[in-house]
Each structure stands twice: as C-alpha cells, then as structure tokens.
Amino acid sequence: MNIAPQISATGPLAGLSVVELGDGTAGPYAAKLLGDFGAEVVKIEGPEGDSTRRRGPFPGGRPDPEASGLFLYLNINKRGVVLDINREDGRDALDRLLAPADIFITNLPMARLQAAGVAPAALRARYPRLIVTTITPFGLKGPWAGRRGDELVTYAMGGIAYSTPGMPDAANDLEREPPLHPACFAAETITGLCAGLATLTAVLGRAKTQDGCYLDVSQQAAVASMQHRDVTSHSYLGGTFNRLLNPTTIGRMPNFYLPCKDGYVTIPAPMDVHWERLVEAMGNPAWALTPEFSTSPARTANWIELRMRLINWTMTLSGDELYGLANQTQLPIFQFYPVRKLVGSEQVQARNSVVDVEIGNRRAKMPGAPFAMRASPWTLRRPAPRLGEHNAAILGERAAVLS
Amino acid sequence: MSNAPRPLPLDGVRVLDLGQFIAMPFCALWLAWLGAEVIVVESRRRLTSRTGPPFAPSLEGNPDASGYFNQICSAKKSCTLDMTTAAGRDIVRRLAGKVDVMVDNFSTGVLEKLGLGHDVVGKLNPGLIMVSCGAFGRSGPMKNARGLHSAVNLFSGVADVTGYLDGEPRILGGVLPDPLSGTYGMFAIMAALHHRERTGQGQFIDLAMYEAMMTLIPEAVIDLTLNDADPKRAGNRDKLKAPHGIYPCRGPDTWVAISVDGDNDWRALCRASGRTEWLGDPRFADAEGRLTHVGVLDAAVEQWTRGVSVGEAVDTLQAAGVAAGPIVRCDQLLDDPQLQAHGSVVTIDHPTAGPHRQLGLPWQMDSLGVEYRRAPLLGEHTHDILTGLLGIDEAEYARLETAGVLS
C-alpha cells in the first residue's frame, strides 16, 4: 500500500475541524481516530514536541524526533503547528485556530490549560459552538481531581490490572505474580477511543441544540467502564475477587491455559459433552476414564492433577496441531500468536489489519483501520507532521517563527 | 444550569440490537443511555441472555432478575420473537427496515442463513448502518473461526506484551476484547451517522475483535516490522521510566502502582518515602542509571512499600507530586470515591430485581443529557413495537401470538 495516491479519499467525518493540544497517546489517539475517518486535524505541540517523539520505536534504536514509530502512528492524517502557549503570541495563535474549529481535544493537565487561558469554562464562554473535550487522569471533580496519574496508575485504578492474569489463565501465587499491566498504552488508547466517541456524540447533539458541549473524560473511568462484566457480578452477587487459579475463579474444569511443545494453548472443555470430545481427541487415555476424572465434580475436585495430565499431553503437540483439534472437536481451543506470527498471518494480510508506514526512510507496518467501513473507509491521507511543519501554511509567515 | 432536562444526543436514532454475550449488547447499551431507542430481539425459546448467573438475591432463574441482562440491556426495549419461524424472521426484516442502526455478533454466516444478512436488509433499507462483529471479523480465512475473549487476547498480540519478567505470555483479566470492540462499534456508528447525514447512504461495518485489540499495541507491531524486534516481557516495567511498577504493601494482596517520570519525580519519591540515602546513590541519579539498575531499584522501592499501607504509600507520594495509585479490584470499583465523584457510578432501579449499581459513561457533559433507565421485562415492548412501529393490527398480532411467533 502506498500512502500518496489515497489523498483524494475523504471519509465519513470530512468537514469536521479539530484542534488537538495533546501529548502521549490518549489525546492524540482521540484526534487520530477523527482524522483517520476524515476530519481535518491540527495538532499543536510545544517547542519541545510531543513526548511520544522521544519514545520510539526508532529505526535501529537511534533516537530521532522525526522517526519515532509511535508518534508517526498516532499523528498520521494531521497537520502540525508548534506554539508556545506560555507566551502571549502563542495563545493568540491558539485562539485563531479555535475560532473556526468544531472540536478541541486536549489531555494536558488542567493547570496548564488554565495558565494558557484555555480552561473548559473559558473556552465554552468564548466559543459557544465549540465542543471541548478534556482527558484527565481522574476527571475534573472529586478527591483525585488534582492528583497525578498516568497510563499505569489509571489502569491500576480501573480494575483490570488486579484481575490480570485473567481467565482461563490466572495466578499460581498471588505474592509472586503481582497485578499486571501490559507493556503498551492500554489505558490511554481506551480513553482516547472513549473521548473520540464522546466527541462525536456531542457533534450529533449540537445539531439539535446549536450549542457546543464540554466533555469531561476520566481516564480511570474509561478503563473501569470496560470492566462491565466483573462489575455486574459484584453488583448482583457481592463477594471479593482474587486472581488465584482455582475452581472458584475458573469454573468448571478443565478450562486451562497451558504450555505446548512450541507455545501456549487454551483447552476449554467445561461441560461433559466437551470433555468427552477432548478425551477422544487425546486418544482415550486410560487415566481420563478413571473415576478421578470421568465426572465433572471429580474433575473439579482433582483439578490440579487434571491440569498436570493435560500438560503432559499438550507438551507432545505443537500449537498448530492443537489448534487443528479445534475443528475436529468443536472445542474453542486456541493457540498463542506472537506478534510476529500475527503480522505474518493470512488473516491479517487478507484484512489489511496492518498497513505500511514510513519511519525515517524505512518501511514498517502499523495497525490499520480498527474496523472496516464499506462506504466511507479509513484512509491514509498524509503522514504525521514534522515538528512545526505547518506553522507557515496554517498561521502565516509571522507564526512560522513562533517556536 | 437550568433544571430543564438536557437534550439527549442520540434522541431520534433507532437501533436493532441482535447482540449476543457482551460485545454488541455493550455497543447498544451506551447508545441507549445517550437517547437512542434500542430494540433487543430475544426469544423465550432460546433465552440465552437472561438465564445465567448472577441473579438478584432469592430470584434465581427469574429472567427479569438477571444481572447480566438488566445491566447490559438497561434503557433498551424488549421484543420477543422466535427467529426460527419464517414469520419471526419476517418481522425482524421489517424491523430492519424501520431502524437506523443494526448490530449483531452472531457467528459469521448465521444472519445470512436466516435471510437477515446485510445483502438482504441493506437492500430493504439503504440508509441502514449495520455493525457486524466477529472475533476475527467477517472476512478473511479465519472469519468462521470461533474465538472467546481469551482467543482474541492470544491472537491479537496483546498477550505477547503481557507477562512477568522473561515469563510466558499471559491473558488480560476481565473480557476486554468484548467491551472494547463494542466501543469501536459505537464510534463506527457515530461516524456512519455523520456520513449518512451528508450522503443519505447507509453502510456495512465489518468489526473484528482482534483488530480492536491490536490498536493497543502499535509499538510492538512497529518495532517488529521496523527493527525485527520481538516484544520482551518485563512485568510492569517501562522502557523509559523507572521506578515503574506495582509494588506490594503492608497487608495481604494489597498493591500500589508507582510511575516515576523523570529525575524530579525520583527525588520527590526519595524524600517523601524518607529514603534520602537513595538521593546520593549514583546508580539512581538519572533515568538511564535507574533503568540499568532497575532490579536493585525495584527491590529498594518494594522494601519501602512493604512497610506501609496502600493508603499511606499513595498519600505520601501524591502529596509529593508523584503519580501513584492503589490497585483497585473490580469488586471495589463501585465504591471508589473518585469514580463516584466523577459521576461514573449510577444506580438503576428495576421493578423485579430492585436497585443495583453499575458504571455509566466515563465522561460527563454540560449541555447534553444521558438517561440511565431500567432494563425491560421480558417481552415488555413486543406489543408496542409490532402494533406501533410496524403497524400490525390487533387481529394479526393475536394470530402471531397464538402461532408462537412472539414467544
């Protein structure tokens, strides 16, 4: 796929204009989603640039603010200007950008917005039709409103770190296996998505009210909102959760995540009918037919032994061989795909789940559209901006030297 | 702010919810709260969504007391139809002709076999926006593969970046692929509504749960394809920040998350924890040193956190301006004072199940409204929808009822 020939496509959000004052993932991702689907996004960076420019991955691991993979991914389809909002001319330029805009998205700390005169209340008063979306770690109200939080802290306070590793995987030892955060910007991405969604609902609402809207997005609440199932369990049943591998957390046995010859597989066979198919697939081993394992209560009572027996079997087979049994047994057996195997898979190729991106004169792949819209597809219209690339084009010659 | 009810952003949008389990019912849930009229099609013959635990206390098995249903279908309408009958399928087709949005996450091909695929309903209603969601999407060689949330975790690459130091790939807690896909589905619907406003054109949206999850790991995909580098699992450590981790506190199974971003944060942590001796330790003076000696550093931080309660650790560090927070369990979320203060915890009363709390939208709005209304009783709106929306007369309704089509 080549980026250049696709400039003509517009997308479902063509005509919406967005000003992003973002840093890291959450704010930039919200604006990226809008831009990827056709909105005109102007990204504002401070003179030091978005911190993601310093994160990478860089070609060959050599830091270069214009060749950070994560920055180039998060800021594709945007134009970029550099403004110092601590200075009056920077604030004036920001005002000139906001006056005609539909949407302002930011995830900078509230204190910085206040200092720059772009706190939500001030913006709502100044631009009544503007949709103002702020992303903060905990939202604007409450005992944590002024506290510091980032990816790790908001993720931890949103419930999901505690419950990881999660079903059918689980911790063998609560002490040695702490709550776990994946090595990615999960909380910020979830929040960026929620903020993008909130913003679009407000655009629809504005068509009714002719009034802008202030959207106060909490990163903690966004992560927590994804814990719908576990919150329901607690709301109706009560009780305390823990992460330990046992029949209380896993349910009927076997329902395991196990090592195999070259990887890892899930072996779910919780009902008798599933178990019978699994036993057949294993070649009817004598142990599986003994009273210790032949009934569901017995399998649950002897689950530790059952798990060991199954590991002895899975270790004799490859992930592909075990996954092949999913069709034969109609059991939802599945194997672990390393990112390498995922990216090379026929499924990812067939769906264009990853697309080309140029990073410092090198070709790489990045995640593509998060869903396929048949009539108004996701498009790559322009690469992420170099630092201050569009100052002159957007703000005029005078502003070209603002930074 | 006046007391007049604020307009609901999605007032006037009608949605047909053929969702199963969590992903698509969750997608339609937020739409309902934001004012859309969401019609859930269910059947007494195959009551999948109302039969599993949890139930309200002492109402085990009562379909109107299902916690799962009442929370994920709050603010929706219930229309009972037997889709195994030709007349039932015909009514669903007629409903598809009257709605703006339709969502489904049946196994790939099921709707087509029922004569309800986009090939049919898209022709009946060219303005229809249809989100069809599968673990692996509706195209590609794996489109028919079965996938629970764990399979989506394992396929999407997220498991490859989740795990303890040099350990095996682990599976995320909760069922994140489901609500995350549902949220992408909502975003897609909003974008498609914009597109339709300008063009009058509806469309089909093919949503793969694994692609939703892949949006969490751009760094890993890029590092692999740019530098041929596979992810290295390292617990809760970060490649640029240290200390960055989840550390045990005094008291069993209690933990604090600490994220130190830069040398100022580090010095603040040393002073706040009273471990001023670390200030003079040259190994820890800058981020590069702290990352090089991260094992020693984590052990030192843990030695401090083990001696204090979670609350003390958090308050001490936050007072010093360091990002820190307690590890909150899912059964603690509804009582979390910050989520409550933000307005994320809502209580919804229900005539059978009584009042229960759940988490609402993760954002607050100043000029637009949200309504957290109760879930419908089983079949509560069947009559209204058939005789009102579809204009079926009473005699025909009675005939359909007698024939078992509405059960």
Radius of gyration of chain B: 26 Å
The CATH architecture of the largest domain in chain A? 3-Layer(aba) Sandwich
Given as residue ranges, the uncertain stretches of chain A (5+ residues, pLDDT < 50) are 1-9
Q: Give the CA-CA distance, first to last residue of chain A.
A: 35 Å
Strand content of chain A: 5-15%
Tertiary shape of chain B = elongated
Structural class of chain A: alpha/beta
Runs of chain B in which pLDDT lies below 50 for 5 or more consecutive residues are none
Number of strand elements of chain B: 12
Q: Architecture of the largest domain in chain B, according to CATH?
A: 3-Layer(aba) Sandwich
Q: Could you say how many structural domains of chain B there are in total?
A: 2
Shape descriptor of chain A reads elongated
Question: In percent, how helical is the residue content of chain B?
Answer: 25-40%
* Largest sheet, spatial ordering of strands of chain A: 3-2-1-4-5-6
For the biggest β-sheet of chain B, the strand order reads 3-2-1-4-5-6
Largest sheet of chain B: 6 strands, parallel
Instruction: Determine the CATH superfamily of the largest domain in chain B.
Output: Crotonobetainyl-coa:carnitine coa-transferase, domain 1
Strand content of chain B: 5-15%
Total separate domains of chain A:
2
Helical coverage of chain A, percent range:
25-40%
CATH topology of the largest domain in chain B: Rossmann fold
Short structural description:
Chain A is α/β, with parallel strands linked by helices and about 400 residues long.
Could you please describe the fold and organization of this structure?
Chain A is of the alpha/beta class. Chain A has 2 domains: 4-226 and 348-401, Crotonobetainyl-coa:carnitine coa-transferase, domain 1 (Rossmann fold, 3-Layer(aba) Sandwich); 247-338, formyl-coa transferase, domain 3, CATH 3.30.1540. Chain A is built from 17 helices and 12 strands. In chain A, strands 3-2-1-4-5-6 form a 6-stranded parallel sheet, with helices on both faces. In chain A, a hairpin with a 2-residue loop joins strand 7 (255-260) and strand 8. In chain A, helix 1 crosses helix 7 (186-209) and helix 7 (186-209) packs across helix 8 (219-225). In chain B, helix 1 (23-33) crosses helix 7. Chain B is elongated and about 85 Å long. Chain B has 2 domains: 14-215 and 377-402, 3-Layer(aba) Sandwich (Rossmann fold), CATH 3.40.50; 244-332, formyl-coa transferase, domain 3 (2-Layer Sandwich). The two termini of chain B are 46 Å apart. Classes of the chains: A alpha/beta (403), B alpha/beta (407). At the A-B interface, helix 2, helix 6, helix 7, strand 6 and helix 8 of A face helix 2, helix 6, helix 7, strand 6 and helix 8 of B.
